[in-house]
Amino acid sequence: MAKILDGIRVLDFTQGHTGSYATMLLADFGAEVIKIEDPETGGDILRNSFPKTDKGSAYHAYMNRGKKSVCIDRKSCEGQQIIMKLIETADVVCDSFPAGELERCGLSYQKASAVNPKIIYASHTAFGKTGPMSYTAGSDLAAQAICGLMDVTGHEGTPPTAHGSRMANQFGGLFFATGIVAALMAAEKSGKGQQIDVASADCMYTALE
């Protein structure tokens, strides 16, 4: 049976839960997701996540189901050339790097859109790619804290309390995937791609409604 995202190619630079969760959803809906992993670091950090056996991480297998994987050094000239060739045939590029990482590797949105005007560049971080906290390392718990969720969780008179599940990761992943699908619909109409900047801290404010 045909799926709604059949024929869509996603280049996935994301690490960890949020980005992997978003691209997992895209793969579930039929997109061809190609995970681009760094040979120097050993690939996605989830590969070493619990629960793990000699066959690998169950967490990683779950979060990256339905995806392809390739090892490319994005910092090398040869790696950048390979990635640009892939971008020519792709619809979406996803990343969860700190601000400026793809630009430093010669893989900016401007350069990519010059060879593929419909390309969508979607980025996820804890606090966004712009603003005073754009270079601040973040986590699910940091996003829960800064948005105020911890202050309204727990019992009266207790200190700020983390939610039992990783809400920022889940909300961030859902908004990330939704933004990409909306951008794909817009590109279908306009013929032009765009940049998407999703911050988990921003997404978590919606959980306070």
- The averaged pLDDT comes out at 93
What characterizes the major β-sheet? 6 strands, parallel
Estimate the strand proportion.
Answer: 15-25%
Label the structural class. Answer: alpha/beta
Task: Please report the number of helical segments.
Answer: 8
The proportion of residues forming helix, as a percent range, comes to 25-40%
What's the N-to-C terminus distance?
38 Å
Query: Largest beta sheet: what is the strand line-up?
Result: 5-2-1-6-7-8
Q: What does the overall shape look like?
A: globular
Query: What is the N-to-C order of secondary-structure elements (H for helix, E for strand)?
Result: EHEEEHEHEHHEHHEH
Low-confidence stretches: none
SSE arrangement:
Layout: E1 9-12, H1 16-28, E2 32-37, E3 52-53, E4 56-57, H2 58-63, E5 68-71, H3 77-89, E6 92-95, H4 101-104, H5 109-115, E7 120-125, H6 140-147, H7 167-190, E8 195-199, H8 200-205
Parallel strand pairs: 1-2, 1-6, 2-5, 6-7, 7-8
Antiparallel strand pairs: 3-4
Helix pairs in contact: 1-7
Task: Give the structure's gist in a few sentences.
The chain has 209 residues and is of the alpha/beta class. Helix content is 39%, strand content 16%.
